[in-house]
Amino acid sequence: MRVVHYLNQFFGGRGGEEKAAVPLEIRDGAIGPGKQLEQLLGTDAEIVLTLICGDNYATENQDQFIASALEKIRAADADLFVAGPCFLAGRYGVAAGALCKAVQSQLEIPVVTGMARENPGADLFRESLYIIDSRESAAKMGEVLARMARFAQKLSSNQEIGSPRDEGYIPRGLIRDQFVEKTAAEPAEASVRCRFLVYRNRVETETDILVGKREDLLRRAGTGWQIVHRKILLDQNVLLSKNLTFFF
Length: 248
Known about the structure:
- The longest helix has 18 residues, at 90-107.
- The N and C termini lie far apart (44 Å).
- Helix 1 packs across helix 6 (141-156) and helix 3 (62-75) crosses helix 4 (90-107).
- 33% of the residues are buried.
- By secondary structure, the chain is an alpha/beta fold.
- The protein folds into two domains: 2-167, Response regulator (Rossmann fold), CATH 3.40.50.2300; 181-234, no CATH class.
- The strands form two sheets. It has a six-stranded mixed sheet with strand order 2-3-1-4-5-6, sandwiched between helices. The chain has a four-stranded antiparallel sheet with strand order 7-8-9-10, with no helix packed on it.
- 29% of the residues lie in helices and 30% in strands.
- The protein has seven helices and ten strands.
């Protein structure tokens, strides 16, 4: 499996903020954290190319950056594209997400990236990409790379992808069916979990979009069920809605 890896100027070894304006550079083989990633992907995988770009250049010249990167990835005949992990680095996350989305749609190969939930790139691209939750600290690099590698192997082999909780990716805001689990309690009870997306439009210009999950405890009542307890967990960290008069 031929892999192309994208890193920013810091993780690519070019320098810190003083090198944030460097344009796209191409290196043969694995660089920096890519060396560990290559080992974790297994003996059948090889990082044939590493793309390195400064955060400022990638975000301020996004169209040119993506076009150049796509050309190199296509020429490398890549089977998999990996970006990051980016952790909390906002510009890095935005650039990685934009490039992953372009590779996925235009080259039609599996893509995996990683970043913290609070990264702006996660908010922009989590609906269209699988983003492994890296949390905030780069001290967990090895652990995050291992999760990214396992997930990349599943994507590349067309295995079924489980829930965010099982696989470790940031929730995408998509609704999917879940099994109902009965408990041994009497009377019979059941735990039900589902995801939701709520859209509300008020007056002319006010709109609210809420994404999250709902966990219900149901108890059998005659021929039906009653809600005993309901927990609502919202994905958003900041709520801009004026009120929460929703029926979840």
